[in-house]
Each structure stands twice: as structure tokens, then as C-alpha cells.
Design a protein that fits this description.
Blueprint (H helix, E strand, L loop, with lengths): L2 E12 L2 E12 L3 E5 L6 H9 L6 E6 L2 E2 L5 H8 L2 E4 L11 H5 L1 H5 L5 H14 L16 H12 L6 E5 L7 H18 L2 E6 L2 H7 L2 E6 L2 E7 L9 H8 L13
Helix pairs in contact: 5-6, 6-7
Length: 255
Amino acid sequence: MSTKISLKGVHKAFGPKRVLAGVDLDIAEGESVVIIGGSGTGKSVTIKCILGLLTPDRGVIEIDGQDVLAMKPAERERMNDQIGVMFQGAALFDSLPVWENVAFGLLAQNKVSRHDARGLALDKLALVGLGENVCDLSPADLSFGMQKRVGLARAIAHDPAIIFFDEPTTGLDPIMADVINDLIIAVNDKVGATALTITHDMQSARKIGDRIAMLYDGVIAWSGPVDEVDASGNEILDQFIHGRTTGPIRMALRA
């Protein structure tokens, strides 16, 4: 398989705080990769650098072999058109009904008529297990789990080649979290997208990922297939997946 996303030596700091210190990661076309790590380890910063929301201090980021950091704004915008994002908190617009939230990107770019956009939104909502009865509701009328589903429908509205999932199960009970995991797998299969997920939920990571990458101290400390996680022999990964307080991972505590 060809490489869809490639990060080479990506660094990012905010003042004296070093967040990324040389991230190297390749993601194959059609692959589902999950970046795990504790809070504040740079998982979200990594995705923001790929999207162009943040500019790395140095390093190379390529999509389809093209250096996105060297692109002009218009070129970068066209590249980002092939990317869908499911945000951690759903990030829906309360002032818009559900169907307009799903089709928001297409409507904002005048790619479809409102009539066609509603039909498309219905199709995508059906993929995540929601019916026409929710189309005209406000996001505030939905449970958090349903809002997550709408967020997933919006992420796939334009049939993206790449989908980013930002902590997709955070804030959900175990049963709804598993529902979201199943939907992510089904949607990825249907759309055929390359997926990059960031999470600290190991149950989710094991279920939706083909490969797991452990981000620690600004670098990828371990990367490999899901079925090799438990026998990795990596002390950092082992401590994280078992939630132990003793080991190489030290939490910064303030008195």
C-alpha cells in the first residue's frame, strides 16, 4: 500500500514548552492508525499540524507525497477538502438544525443546493444509525451520544479520503462508546478512508485501529499492529495500557 500521510522529524514548541520533539509516523492508504498517549502529550497538536491549524517549527508533513507545509494557502485548502474531522465535543452549531450541521461544509462552499444537501445529510445520518426524525431538531435536543453520531455524519458528508477522529469516545458511557467504535469501523469500511484517531481509551484503540502509535515525551515511543501491543516489550507502552503509576512515565504534580 502507498503512504497516505507521512510525518518526518516534526517539532513543535510553545515558548519554552516542547510538545513535539521529532515525530516520525507513516500511515498507509486505507489504514486506521490510533495515536495513544496521556493528556497533554501532543496528540491534538499532531493533528493540528497535519491540518495546517498549527505550523511545526521544523520537520516535513506529506499527504499523497506532497509537502503540505510548502503549499500556498489555496493549494492547502484544496488538500484539506479531502479531509473530514470528527471533533471531541461534536462541535455542532446550536443555531442550525441537525441536517444543516451535517451538510455545513458543502453548503458553505456552495457545492450543492439546499434541497440536495438535505438529501445527502439524510443518507449520511442513516449510515450512523439516525433517521429523518432528527433532521430538523436542534443539537441541544439530542443526547451527547447522538451528537457524536451527528458529528461523525458531518465528518463523512463529503466522502473524504482521510478522516481524523479526535477522542471519539470521550464523555460516553461504555455501551455508547462501543456503539461509536462500531460506527467508526462501519463508516471507514463504507467510505474507504484512511483514518487517524487520537485517544487515551485503550478499549477504543484496540477495536478501531489496525496499528497503534504511542506518543510520549514528544516522539513516537512505539508503533506496531494492535495484536502486538500486549507483548511489545516497551516499558512506556506497557505502563500506559495497564494504567500503572510506577514506570518510566512520570506525572508532573504540583503541590
